[in-house]
Amino acid sequence: GLKKKADTKGGVATGAGPGYQERETWTRQMDFIMSCVGFAVGLGNVWRFPYLCYKNGGGVFLIPYLLIVFVGGIPIFFLEIALGQFMKAGSINVWNIAPLFKGLGYASMVIVFFCNTYYIMVLAWGFYYLIKSFNATLPWSTCNNEWNTPSCIEIFHQQDCSNGSLSNATVTGNMTCAELEDARSPIIEFWENKVLNISSGLDEAGQVNWELTLCLMAVWVLVYFCVWKGVKSTGKIVYFTATFPYVVLIILLVRGVTLPGAYNGIMYYIKPDWSKLQEAQVWIDAGTQIFFSYAIGLGALTALGSYNRFNNDCYKDAFILALINSGTSFFSGFVVFSILGFMAAEQGVDVSQVAESGPGLAFIAYPKAVSLMPVAPLWAALFFFMLLLLGLDSQFVGVEGFITGILDLFPGKYQHRYKREIAVALCCLLCFIIDLSMVTQGGMYVFQLFDYYSASGMTLLWQALWECIVVAWVYGADRFMDDVARMIGYRPFPWMKWCWSFLTPCLCMGIFLFHLVNYKQLTYNNVYVYPWWGEVIGWCLALSSMLCIPVSLLYKLFRAKGTLRERWAHLTSPVWGAHHLEYMAPDIKSLSSLSPGTDDNKVIIFESVM
To answer: What pLDDT does 609 receive?
Structure first.
């Protein structure tokens, strides 16, 4: 095929053909940066990083964190964006660079689909809390609602009980100290009895919570209308959803620092504990957190990069984005811990007793702290509005990445005017139907299954490991560095190449094996243990993405013809797109003028240039 193309137009290839559509690009480069910030800066930065930092020795945690950022985070982040930009394709077709490994694309599509499905639940809960915040008294601050139980108590007086002499004295109202042990705060009751209305276990689904279903519907509709027109419109919406959370974070920080007890909370967050560096768990936590918060292995970064101009400087972008991402994580720790410190001071307990991570921080610890402040509804509304925006842009880009991958499978020949709009509608609808299982009374158990297995650290590490192997060893790290140089105009620092070839795969492999060895059964609140069949479902979710790679690899090898070496050579030679032939054409012209000869000469030169 190359020979024929090289004959035409004196070496300028015309592989475009009639079906070749010009891919849309970002209106401005800033749109791309903002979308990446919106995607990568999500809820994990606010609710996971501060907690990990506090748990793993405060300021010391930054040492393993930064090391892994430079060895694993930035190299793969850059790899994904550069791949998308170079191949101008979504997460599946980008692996035309080594067609044998297209399974990588399918795996990332499976992961991002699961992510889109369960991540939206957090937004639905946040939306629900946001609506409930517009009350003069916050519904989770009092004990006299219909969902409260008799053991609900608004103010704990643990310190009166800790004296010991008062062991059976009545402390608050008519409760003895023994009863105080079992007492529950109104916020936990609001979360478990009202919002989740939680059942006894995974096997008991119960009925659907209508208020939550409406919230879920509203959020999906919002996502649909933000994504349906493609990057031209998403690129504009993201300006608001990516920057406004920072405004809210700064407002909350100013409010947090002025509260009594804030100083203790912040010291808790940063105080270094050097002994932690010897523990393997600290390094594992750092690695997993980076892979999570950099949104690596989901194929969405590839999709965003594919809308770049071919000669955009994605190397510089990768560093800017990494800085913003890690900076936000670190900064939001001050916000979270200043408020946790205030809460600990109000209740007279240690900060370690109120520090939480994940949904617990967002829907229990934080609302509780807010209810102790003056003008509580305002701070609650602000916080949940920020939560909603942080999650929404991650959701947009996740859906965007999924749709890009799907649409790239059906190029020019399926032209329909509303192709994209219909695809997005079907995707949203399918996810919504699956989400209905998560708004039932047993929904929280389903949510945790998805969270723990479908897009866990394991699946992302497996994905990243293969990405590095394919680019560095199958396609060739030096060869890819040449391609990057052709795009951005200079060669990146060779550190990237060493990372792709040796350091990052070893890091991924190490953390992956550690996860496997230290595998623990999934529990809810450390009390409810999942049944065996629940765990089987979880492993099916995890393996559904992980097995894509080896299964499709073997399938393609068996289907091909020839000896094994021929099959390998054939299946690992890249399939170039029309734009590659255009970009490479100038070199061919200058070269072919040097060697006046037969057409065969041209072909050889053409291939060597490639």
So the answer is: 43
